[in-house]
Design goal:
With 222 residues, the protein is α+β, with helices and mostly antiparallel strands. 36% of the residues lie in helices and 27% in strands.
Length: 222
Amino acid sequence: MDITDIFSIPLFRNFTKEMQKEVLERLEYRIDEYPKGEVVATQGTVCKYLHLLLKGKLNVDVIDVSGNEVRVETIRAPRSFATPHIFAEKNFFPATFTVVEEVTLLRATRESVFALMNSMPQFLQNFLCESMGCNKCTLTRLRVLTFRSIRARFVYYLFSHMKEDSDTIELDEHNLVQLAEYLGITRPALSKEIKKLVDEGNISFSHRKVKILNKKALSHML
């Protein structure tokens, strides 16, 4: 694995060649590989390093207050994860990260990361932006649960996962059972609501892909 792959991660966005060279010289790190099914970090354990996923895919699951395991998302390389928790006062992993496809993971020491922040304002800015993205994921999950109806929870989920240039949402992070758990409802209830939305002409649903057909109508459901 080429260590320079880290520069395709948003955490190192807009780095010049000189800045990249400084990172490679000053960052203290180790690289580990994990097979499918291996847990690379467990919810509630201490986060001591900056984690950079160089290769592979991880499922991100949390145990909620009821003791249920809920799929939050699936993350793919290249990217960082659990970014803000390295410097948090209670620096515990917020979720369990399990290998879906063989993973190559770089762990950088907190001390060397902090030193780079002090000398490279661009790195500090990128770190703060990435941390905000991690917090947004948490807030989205909490926002979902504020809606009382099954329909509103599902519609909000669709809107929060839409991309700017597409009206199709791929449910590759969750199957229906996992999505129901994420939304805090039962799978039969979710399936029934999806069927209603399809019959009403608001969405189409096929092969874990949802296409928005009537965005205005869906917006009024929130």
